[in-house]
Design goal:
Layout: H1 2-13, H2 21-28, E1 33-38, E2 41-47, E3 56-61, E4 64-78, E5 83-97, E6 108-112, E7 115-121
Antiparallel strand pairs: 1-2, 2-7, 3-4, 4-5, 6-7
């Protein structure tokens, strides 16, 4: 059975067995992020489908906008002579430096259609007028 030997070699003989997504998906999940400079604000979009708004934590700390998420799921099926349990856990952390011309108190967040949308309003920066200094 030539096909069986190849399958067994792939499963047991491969050095890449533990590179499978099953073993590495948890540590690799990092959602895609878009940052747009739109009139009067910065808009951040985080692609994170399959979550709820309660799964996210968004905070501002020491000039950083921190976005994190933890999602744990448990599923159990019971039949006559067996029980099947599945567990999954996903998490991520992202941090972004807040530009000086934004107001951290005006950040708005909204989660819809699998995308977390954040808006950071820009402040008008007033440059101080030039001042002539007299030399004595």
């Amino acid at each position: 059975m030539p096909g069986m030997k190849s399958w067994l070699d792939d499963f047991w003989g491969s050095d890449r067995f533990f590179d499978d997504d099953f073993f590495t998906a948890r540590s690799r999940w990092l959602p895609a992020v878009n940052i747009k400079d739109v009139n009067g604000s910065f808009e951040i979009e985080v692609a994170a489908p399959g979550l709820r708004k309660e799964d996210f934590n968004v905070a501002v700390e020491n000039g950083l906008l921190k976005i994190s998420c933890e999602k744990e799921e448990k599923k159990e099926e019971k039949e006559d002579n067996y029980t099947r349990r599945e567990f999954s856990y996903r998490s991520f952390n992202r941090s972004f430096a807040i530009p000086e011309n934004t107001d951290p108190d005006s950040i708005e967040a909204k989660y819809e259609d699998g995308i977390l949308k954040l808006r950071l309003k820009k402040m008008k920066m007033v440059e101080p007028e030039a001042k002539k200094i007299l030399i004595s």
